Write the structure tokens for this entry.
Amino acid sequence: MGPAPCAPKINFEFSTATVAEANAGLVDCRPYRDYTFNMTIGNSPSQAALVTLTNSGGTATNGQDYILTNNGNFTTPSLSLQFPAGSSANRQIQLRVFDEAYIEAEENLILGFTVNSNGGNALKGDAKTVLLIGFTDNDKEPLPVFTKIETIGTLQYTLGSSADGSNPLNNKLQKKKNVWNLKASELIAMGFSAGSIKSIALYLQKNGGRAFSNLQIQMGTTTRTNIVDGGLFGVTTNVLAANLATFSTVDGWNTIPFSTPFNWNGTSNVVIQLCCDNSIAAASEPSDITYGYTDGGSSTQGNMYFNNTIGCSENFTSASYFQNGVKPTTRLNMDIPGAITESTLNASNTGYLGPNGEMYFYSSTGNLLGKIKNLTAWDYGCTQVRIDRTGNATKAFYNNNAAEYVFDKTIVVTPANNNPNGQYEITLFYKKTEVDGFKTATGNLWGTAGIVKTTNAISSYTPGSVPLGDLAYGTNVTRSAYGEDSTIRATFNGGFSGFGVIRNNNLLPVTWLEFTGKMDADNASLSWSTAAEINNSHFEVETGRSGNDFTPIGRVESQGATNGNRNYAFTHYKPLPGLNFYRIRQMDIDGKSSFSSVIGLKKELSQKAPGVYPNPATNALSLDWGSFAGKAARWELLSADMKILSKGSTSQSSSVERIPVQKLSNGVYFLRLVCEGEVRTVRFLKQ
């Protein structure tokens, strides 16, 4: 008999895989790349076997980071696939990975599956029943143009002695030409990326006193890892970076500045040619000694060669070299380009802002427009950020006071699905010239700036006439440097619209006009008016006896945002006799507050005897202190057999006291009042 046939066991083709975000296609505003994975079966099943994929875990989010399907349709995906009876062919599953432009940690997806054999002999395998897929994020925090200074190599060797001609910077010779090669891998290991080299520096032990004449540095690139490898290979240097008529050395690092920076592409090896043409040799002059290191080459490999008899205008016909890849320790000063701040009118970008998403928006030229962090689970969909106005100064906003002008450059944000109840952080980027223009035009410091949101795009309003009711100021304002430019961030509630930068908290929520009051019989009638309101929630009326300590006694709601006048009124019933002070506390929507002026109203002392009402009482008994008001008095509630049931003292804000009696049984009770040795007892009925 032959061997038993292989069982039709179903497995994934691999147990692990890695996918990367990439822009290989676009659906709506979402770049994506599709990947295909196989499922295998060991033999033909006797009946069609149904496989259902399961998400067994992972940190990637379905619908936001990826969509999984087996039918090729990512709009109505299916997670079930079939191995037909009599076929052992692989079956495919498709994974669409979105390049959502979020900066996030590495994520993963863990896939499992179940098998329905439909009465046949197919079964779940025991080899690769789980597929772990890792997601590689291709998004990084933007960096401004910055300068990076790093040293390639260590101070490992001295290149020659003070008496010979091996040293690259040899001031005793009439002329000399050196060429050395810095490997791209060495630069990358030190954190360099493509950028502009502005200078090099060599480390010397200074021995001589003569300055160099006609010192030149030329730069170039090569694909050769070693410029000496069993033979010498010529390399091209086509950028004259430095051309110095004279150059004096010092003990330690010697920096040679470039008049023409050399642009490195980030991948090629960098060739440096250093030469000099001194007028005459100085045989008695001791040579400076240059320090170097080995890059690990063999005895037949080198990355520096030189000739002590040719100058800058002469070509190599022969050369000496250092074995084992020995070459000068070289310090590079390089400007690394980054994302710059965008300032072009109508520059825009549309990206997918999903639940709790956080993304930077770049213009079509790769310049920064802004950053938005969604603080809710709301899906805004495709969201556009656009510069709708530009300039390096300011423009009038809600009035013509220069200190309250808004930046020329403004932004408008337009999501596919706006949310009037949303919450988000927005970060705006401004060039140094734009910030300087704001400071000059308004007289404000950058540290006073904040972000303001308008109902419509700021560019759609007539300067100086923006309605206050259309404004909202961001909270939690943070200002930061971005290279020589600046960023400003704030939190907002509500939907997206127009955004600009203005002096932070520029408007007081309320502009007070007047606050007055008068005694009307036993009551204090208060009235106040405002000239403008924005973000105002309500007013709290407060009173006190000293003019310093106040207690709230009432609340009046705001009549809404306005540029015009509003009038308000409040009545304080039965205030204490004597002088009462009043003020109005205005409460902002965001919890901030401001106060009106303080006024005082005098109520004449009452000569009437204390009394209670209503009598009989049901739920509460009102005690009118009468001539006891404003004094150190107390009350005691007594039962018919004169036992004390409860007690209290005079109010600090009113001549009338409310005493609850709803829990008392029906019947006769007494209220005993004591004030400065005088005692009065009042009888009342509870029913």
In short: Helices lie at 184-189, 432-442. The first helix runs from residue 184 to 189. The chain has two helices and 54 strands.
